[in-house]
UniProtKB/TrEMBL annotation:
Claim: Kinase is one of the keywords in the record: no
Family: Belongs to the cytidine and deoxycytidylate deaminase family.
Binding site for Zn(2+): H89, C115, C118
Species name: Cohnella lubricantis
Superkingdom as given in the UniProt entry: Bacteria
GO molecular function, one term: zinc ion binding
Cellular component GO terms, alphabetical: cytoplasm
Entry keywords, A to Z: Hydrolase, Metal-binding, Zinc
One Gene Ontology biological process: pyrimidine nucleotide metabolic process
Active site (catalytic residues): E91 (proton donor)
Protein name: dCMP deaminase family protein
Cofactor dependence: Zn(2+)
Length: 173
């Protein structure tokens, strides 16, 4: 009798993050986050409206548009971003519902690379590593630079395939 192959720890915890993301009711993107200390799971969170408040599937998204300068070499353009302000991001919920002492030296597994705001919050949270699956192109370079400046390991889980029925057809504008 052959023993079934075990998943490595990165895959195991990222699978959990994707399962957590299925709790989200956001029509634009389901995001899950998991806090891990060593091999111990300390907390999970997903994106959504504050507790007791109608979420986007019930009340609609609250989309705002922002413009941000984007400089690449000698070219300078304005980058248009749309974001929902009804939703609390998974990383923000994770920080709200876990203790600072548990975060010291821990790892966050998140289905999507953190946005700039979440990256700033995570940079001050005590974590030592962020592992993500889907890249967020609009903020990638500045988030990567911030993590490098803070000495936080920041890596994509290459070759990872999420569990069946956990990925949504996401819309990021």
């Amino acid at each position: 009798m052959t023993e079934a192959l075990r998943k490595d720890w990165d895959t195991y915890f990222m699978d959990i993050a994707f399962m957590v993301s299925t709790r989200s009711r956001c029509p634009r993107r389901h995001v899950g986050a998991v806090l891990v200390q060593g091999k111990k799971l300390l907390g999970t969170a997903y994106n959504g409206a504050p507790m007791g408040v109608p979420d986007c599937s019930e009340a609609g998204c609250m989309i705002v548009e922002e413009y941000e300068p984007a400089v690449r070499g000698d070219d300078s353009t304005m980058l248009k971003k749309q974001r929902c302000i009804r939703t609390i991001h998974a990383e923000q919920n994770l920080l709200l519902f876990t203790d600072r002492i548990d975060r010291e030296g821990s790892t966050v597994y998140v289905t999507d690379q953190p946005c700039w705001t979440c990256a700033n919050m995570l940079a001050n949270s005590g974590i030592r590593e962020i592992v993500y699956h889907r890249r967020y192109p609009k903020d990638y370079e500045k988030v990567e630079q911030l993590m490098e400046q803070r000495g936080i390991q920041f890596r994509s889980l290459n070759g990872y395939t999420p569990p069946a029925d956990t990925e949504t057809q996401d819309v990021i504008a």
